User: What shape does this take?
Amino acid sequence: MTEFLSAYIPTILQILLFLVMLGMGMTLTIPDFTRVGIAPKAVFTGLANQIIIVPLIAYGIVLLVPMEPMIAMGLMVCACSPGGAVSNLYSYLAKGDTALSITLTAISSLITIFTIPLIINFSLDSILGEAAKNIQLPLGRTIFNIFKLTALPVFLGMFVNHRFPRTAQKSKPIIKWGSITVIVIALAFMVIKLEEIGDSWIYLKASFLSVVLLNLLTLGIGFFSAKILNLPTKQAATISIESGMQNNVLGMTLAMSPALLNSPEMAATPGVYGVVMCVFAIGVIYIYKGMIVKEEKHESTFNR
Assistant: This one.
């Protein structure tokens, strides 16, 4: 049974990712993509963190922390993925700027269709060198494959939201918590796949330190970069969460898909990242919620 399931894991992951992105699309509207004009500084700060700073931090970790090349590649795959649908839920629970969170997730999901193959190909050359000759991702085909898995289901979800808004509204809680369930299911599938080539526990342990460093650094830099630009704590908290919570299901799918990287070893790092980011986010919610409530009380007292 396990062998039969293992043969179809890459396909199952693609279906799960498609469903997650479809669900995310059902929470989006056109204004979510046009909110740049309302809060340009917050949106551009968030996107700069997600698209540029997070991959740079990951590459710095790769250079400074000794790790196996496939684990390092997995870190880069995770870092170049966009913000995940789960980040909107955590931003809401932390009393952050949920509208900003949705906008950042929506826009980054489109931009990374083009940036992912560029970053991965650079990482393959830099980390694997000559061994990467057989894994290079053709730009056009990769963009098309990522579009199929991310943007297409998002647009379909938006169409459902437009045509059946009441149904989409009722589905939102299921969609948000369902995304966390998908992370757990995807991790289980990844472990099954890793067991085919060795001891999955070895890969999980090998990626743990780099994953923890990436998550803590991106959460911290996301927050402080926003505060340096004098953004309110509500938006700084959201940018922090969006920076630290990547679409790890996409990362695992990119790593294990036969049409893309075809490497279960690379999938270990985004798999572990999905668990770590959800666990750390519990503490982040508590910290940011307290800071935001305190700031709002102070502003309320000041404005009396």
Summary: The mean pLDDT is 80.
